[in-house]
Amino acid sequence: MNRILCMFILSLLVLTILSGCSDVAMTGRKQLNLVPASTVQSMAFSEYKQFLSENKLSTDAAKTQIVRTVGTRIQKAVESYMASNNMSDRLAGYQWEYNLVENKEINAWAMPGGKVVVYTGLLTVATTDTELAVVMGHEIAHAVANHGGERLSQGLIVQLGGMGLDYAIQNKPEAT
Q: What separation in angstroms does the CA of 99 have from each of 29, 108, 144, 167?
């Protein structure tokens, strides 16, 4: 009976994983997505709001406008590409936003749902719109490719595997 139950659970797990596979929009690479995009975006929006409350936005209006202009151009290109390839639905729930944060780190990032942050330190090395667009485009591509949801799904699988191993060790330590 235990063997049948284990096989049933294993089969269910395999089916769940296979049904959670999808294609990355631009590359066609397969990825695991067990968590709905709307859930990932909700989590990202909450984290983004908290980040902004704990970090100082730049007061340099000119540099902030550059970040927003470059971000909006990338956004329009992404939306156009997705529309022309019948993938606009993959941008459902996106609420694009671009902010420049006072931080000497040379960094930028984008969260699922289109929340993008550039650190002022990046602008010391990315001194043209094109250089900034390369970095921002790279980060936005991670968000559009749903890498955050993929990582979250991978983490869930690892946790599930750990729980299974823990169960096996507790119930059949010698066999495990």
A: 30, 10, 18, 46
Measured in degrees and rounded to the nearest 5, phi and psi for residue 135 equal: -70, -50
Kindly report the number of other CB atoms within 10 A of residue 171's CB atom: 10
d(CA 76, CA 164): 45
State the residue for tokens 């390839």: 85
Model-level pTM? Answer: 0.69
* Angstrom distance (rounded) from CA 36 to CA 77: 25
Q: Which two structure tokens, joined as six digits, stand for 151?
A: 């990582």
pLDDT digits (tens, 9 = 90+) for 11-60: 555 545 544 555 555 656 555 565 566 666 677 788 999 999 999 999 99
